[in-house]
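All the exercises in this workshop are built on plain-text protein records. An example says more than a description, so a record of this kind follows:
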Amino acid sequence: MNQPVPNLPELQTEVTRLHDELEMRDQLVQQLSQELFRLVKGNTGFMPSPEVSERHMSEMRSLREQLQGVEQQVMFYQEQIAARDGEIYQLRQSVQELTDRSRMLEQVVQELPQIYKKKFTERLAPVKEKMALIQRENRQLQAELQSVSYRLAVRTRRTTHIDLPSFPRMGSPAIPTFGDI
């Protein structure tokens, strides 16, 4: 942090030099301003003529009116764009919701055959069981009927007396019904 301190004579020389430069600048600025004033004051062509100035003013008014018209059109179009942007946003949301719903419905439709097959199988299982039970009873009854017919034929040849077999009583009625299906 110890910087060498310039000695006093060097500093005084620098200050004097800067002071001289400042005085020279001030003189140049004053000379330039006097010269500019002299040029403007002495040159009457520097100022526009009143008729040129009036024409420029009318052109400026016309341009301002045109600019206001263009600004109004721009504001109108910006309002329309903003309204359409809002509509577009709402339509995009609707499209997204409908797309999601469509996907869900497609998934449900794809799952329907398996669901119907499962439900049909579930409902058909008791019917198949009942049908198997009826077929067993039918086979048993046919076997017993054949046995009775055979015995009847044998006895009819021997005697006229008929001996019918006795059927064991089961929990179900002798004639099956389809009321449980």
User: Anything to note?
Assistant: The helical segments are 8-42, 50-158. Residues 50-158 form the longest helix (109 residues). The mean pLDDT is 84. The radius of gyration is 59 Å.
